[in-house]
């Protein structure tokens, strides 16, 4: 009886807890075990492998304007000879042929001004990598999002997030939106 466990029924004897203290202790142990299992599942769900953006990919503003990608700091890391894009490589990149108009007036997106929501959590060459799955968190000078034609790459980065919020919510929390200003 010395090493008997109530939870595991190690002696195949069913014992009943009658004291209030014993019942509370039994509940505490069973709840702790349930929480540990739940925490392990949450940790598994909270890490995603996201793909790096490459220099040759088709990146556009939501109107169809093409972002000119040129990798400078990411040149040393290549996927089939194509360098990856780092934070400073995408920031201030030009956008050409954006057909955006407001009330008949041409208001094209001209450059990328915010990339905070699309960054990896690990640095490469002392800079963060741009992740394809989070690219919609990037903003143009007119406040519009970017879109990419997804292509799997050899460079995958672990990205943890709160499973209750999801990837998209976390990216939104990292950027500060400002009211757009239109001058006519």
UniProtKB/TrEMBL annotation:
Name recorded for this polypeptide: Lysozyme
